[in-house]
Request: fold
Amino acid sequence: MNRAHVPLVHLAIAFLLAGCLGPRTTRPTRLFVLNATAASADARAPAADLRLSIGRIVLPERLNRSQIVTRTGTNEVHITDFSQWAEPLEKSIPRVISENLSNLTGTDQISVYPWPMRIETDFKLEIAILAFEGNSDGEVALGARWRWVRADGSEVQPLQASSYAESATDRSTEALVAAMSRALAALSVDIAAAIPSP
Reply:
């Protein structure tokens, strides 16, 4: 190599390193959580002795991820790395439903899968989430199939299919997540109303 070219090579390497190692501005990742929003139902008699359990939730694979999924078309969804769930949906959805049911029924004896040990329960909730997404207009759609079964797994009611729609107050992700929490509260109200008599 010509000696005159050596300084130019060193200069080029220095610029490359500066570009790779220099300061970068990246968009921070924001973490979101679902919250229980169902208020206590004064008209419903407390069921302090009722023992309930919520089984393992079934989720579509498109939702079983840390990123928040929004629908952009009939056959298209958008996934962003900068808006994520603080906990997996398979854990947060049962947690929120459990808290909502506690508010609605008056019982604190609600176990959520996975159970640490063998539990005593009067009824177990089986639930599959079919859709749980918002769109760019702030409209949230929740679809679910669910039923209560006895502790031994025997059916006490037919499978229920429910769908809910909520509108976010603005186009922010925070407002979208709040609308998703409200949709879960509406589902929880129907689930609570369907609890069989002991």
Observations:
- The domain at 41-193 is CATH 3.40.50.10610 (Rossmann fold).
- The chain is about 25% helix and 30% strand.
- Helices lie at 6-21, 89-105, 173-193.
- The chain has one domain: 41-193.
